[in-house]
Each structure stands twice: as C-alpha cells, then as structure tokens.
Amino acid sequence: MSEGEPILMRRDEAGVATLTLNRPAARNALSVALMTELEAALSAIAADASVKVVVLAANGPAFCAGHDLKEMRGLAGREAVAAVFALCSRVMTAIVRLPQPVVAKVHAMATAAGCQLVASCDLAYASTGAKFATPGVNIGLFCSTPMVALSRVVGRKQAMEMLLSGVPVNAATAESWGLINHAVDPEVLDGEVAAMARLIAGKSSHTVKVGKEAFYRQLEMGLDDAYAHASRVMTENMLAMDAAEGIDAFLEKRPPVWRGC
User: Fold this and answer.
1) What confidence score (pLDDT) does residue 164 get?
2) Is residue 103 part of a domain?
3) Secretion signal: which residues (predicted)?
4) Domain limits at 230?
C-alpha cells in the first residue's frame, strides 16, 4: 500500500458494494482505525438502498491476520483494551444485522479475528490455498471473541479443535465443517463470488432483508418460538408488494419487477 492509500476501499457496481481491506503490509490486521472505517462503511451501506449485496475482500498476502497485536500491546489499561474488543464486536454484529447479505471472498490466510470476520459473513467463498485458524492459544490469548462467531457456524468438536490446537485448517476442511460455502481454484474465485453476488442482487431487496433478519433471530429461539416468529414474518412478507408481484409474475410466466417494499 502506498502512502495516502485508504486502509479500506469501497467500490460499487450494479448493486454490489465491495469493501476491500487494504493493509497488505500488516496482513490486513484489524487496527482500531481499520475497524472504525469498517463500522462506518457498514453503517452507510445499511442506509443505502442502492446496495443489494456486500462483498468483503482483501489485498495482499493474507485475508486478515486478526487484531493488530503491536497496537494491542501498546494499549494502556483495562478500559483501552476493552474498548478495542467492544469495537470489534460491534463490527461483527453489524455484519450479521446488516440488511444486505455479506459475502466473504477469502483469497488467503484468515486467522483469529480474521477467521471471526469470515464466520460472521452470511456466505463465504475461499481459494483452495486459503487457510483458517484461531491460534490465540499459542500466544497465551485464547480466541474467545472469534469463538462466538466460529461456534455458530461449525460443530462444537470442530470449533474446539481449532480453538484448543491453534492449528490451521485448509479450505477443503473449512468447507466440510461449514465455515465456508465453497473452496474454489484461485483463478475462478473472483468469478464465483461475482456470480453469486449478481444472483442475490437480482432478488427483491425487501424479501432478502426480511429473510436475513428472521434467519438470525430464529436461531436464538426455542423451536416453538422460532416457528411462531417465522409465521409472523411470513404473514407480513406475504402482504408486501414484492411478494404480490413475485407471485403474479410466477403465475403469468414473466420476470418480476421488484419495488423493494
């Protein structure tokens, strides 16, 4: 990265906003500045009706190396440390609560909070050469906050293996465990992510927003409460203009024209 280049870049095209981590020399470590920019970018996107899908990518030899340990070691006192982890938690929950789906495009290693970042995204595609790890245990700092996202997307035994051993898993293993959707050859990664982003961007933004929110909320509920909540959501969804348009278009064998409401 040359001096003056942004540490987070945004590019918008055809309803897809691509956010690119741009601290390649630091392996895209999540400094306070980078997390602050990510939080602001996600907040802006949440209010931007033109954005249908978000792609999270990175420049350089790693996707994300987790927290900036040099910066962390320089912090003075409990409050300063707690503030960094609180900021990180806000970024991760902002991804989950964003109205638009977020797709991680992982070209290389994602460790600790970088692995957490991948696990927090709605979808994740990775190069076959990418690896994933929660290696905090190796330096006396258990990956407790990455554990929150990781344990919600992979099985308990698999999560604990990563957390207790600190050993990286390859992309094929990450796919089989559910940490990522697909591991693909490096030369087709961009195309695979772009195709999925375009596919989702072509859906009703209102329907996708309603569905994403309901998905995460029902996961936190018991079975009866989950069905009750989902039934309420589907009732409201059924009465929306886009649902009426979508059903009419299906019955009339024509493409729908979405209104986003």
Assistant:
1) 98
2) yes
3) none
4) 205-252
Kindly give the pairing relationship between strand 131-133 and strand 16-21: unpaired
10 HSE (CA, 13 A, CB side): 16
Identify whether residues 55 and 97 lie together within a single domain.
yes
- Mean of pLDDT values over 98-113: 98
pTM: 0.95
Tell me, yes or no, whether 69 and 115 share the same domain: yes
Q: How many angstroms separate the CA atoms of 208 and 197, rounded?
A: 13
DSSP letters for 108-148: SEEETHHHHHHHHSSEEEEETT-EEE-GGGGGT---HHHHH
Q: Is-contact 111 67, C-beta < 8 A?
A: no
Is residue 3 pLDDT above 80, yes or no? no
State the residue for tokens 């009732």: 235
- Taking the C-alpha atoms of residue 174 and residue 256, their distance in angstroms, rounded to an integer, is 36
- pLDDT, tens digit, 9 for 90 and up, residues 66-80: 999 999 999 989 999
Burial of 149 (0-12, 13-18, 19+ CB in 10 A): buried
Q: Residue 12's beta-bridge partner residues? A: 17
